[in-house]
Specification:
The protein is of the alpha+beta class. It contains six helices and seven strands. It has helices at residues 2-10, 33-36, 40-82, 111-128, 132-136, 159-173; strands spanning 139-149, 152-157, 179-181, 188-192, 195-204, 209-220, 223-231. Strands 1, 2, 3, 4, 5, 6 and 7 form a seven-stranded mixed beta sheet that branches. The longest helix has 43 residues, at 40-82. The protein starts with a helix and ends in a 7-residue tail after the last strand.
């Protein structure tokens, strides 16, 4: 009977793969994925994704730091260039950190030259003010003067005689403008230690008189004094 054959076929056991206990058809490559993939594979995949994501984050953050340091380094370099270059080159720092003096700065005059110029400026003032006492303070005890005096050209030696010649001029002309033309540091010639010579010109505009004049000065005990005056004896000079 057909029904009996059908029931007998249905009652037959399902063939299974040897040694597995699983149906023979379950190991076919086309079977379900859940039957072929171990359970730890999804967990490992998730872990790898997390590690990869962390690596990306580190790379991104590290790159931004490097990029950020680039402009800062460039800015630092520009600052160094603006401040005169690298340390030890292009700078003008003196040893010890101080600034070196400028090559264009003026050099102070030696004390001797300053003192000599000061004496001759005082000579101008003493003559202009017709002051015998002020003139006497500038002359050495053994001073010698050659120039015009009352009665003509004369030469006096010694402080007292020289002051008498100046006094005669002052009493005749009174205070009068007197200047030494061209008086400067370049005109001061140091002959030897403690002795100097200055050759310039004098001018008395009110008397319409001028001419060459020279001074010899000596250092006596740390004080510069006039030891010789040689002036031109022009007719009509005071």
């Amino acid at each position: 009977m057909v029904q009996g054959s059908t029931a007998s076929a249905a009652a037959q056991p399902i063939p299974r793969a040897p040694g597995t206990g699983k149906p023979r058809g379950s190991s076919h490559p086309g079977g379900p994925v859940s039957d072929r993939m171990p359970k730890w594979v999804p967990v490992a995949a998730v872990a790898l994704l997390l590690v990869a994501a962390g690596a990306v984050v580190l790379l991104v953050s590290g790159g931004s730091d490097d990029e950020g340091s680039g402009p800062r380094t460039a800015a630092s370099t520009s600052n160094v260039a603006a401040s005169g270059g690298e340390s030890g080159s292009g700078s003008e720092s003196a040893p010890g950190g101080g600034s070196a003096p400028s090559s264009t700065s003026s050099t102070p005059l030696p004390a001797s030259r300053v003192a000599i110029l000061d004496v001759l400026h005082q000579y101008e003032n003493a003559y202009s003010n017709a002051s015998v006492s002020a003139m006497g303070a500038l002359l050495a005890a053994d001073v010698q003067r050659h120039g015009l005096a009352v009665g003509g050209c004369s030469t006096e030696t010694g402080k007292r005689a020289v002051l008498r010649a100046y006094e005669s001029q002052f009493s005749q002309n009174g205070p009068i403008g007197y200047s030494l033309v061209g008086l400067s540091d370049e005109k001061v010639k140091l002959i030897r230690n403690g002795e100097a010579r200055v050759a310039i010109s004098y001018s008395i505009p009110a008397a319409n008189n001028s001419g060459p004049i020279s001074f010899t000065l000596v250092d006596r005990g740390g004080r510069w004094q006039i030891s010789e005056v040689d002036a031109t004896c022009n007719p009509g000079s005071p």
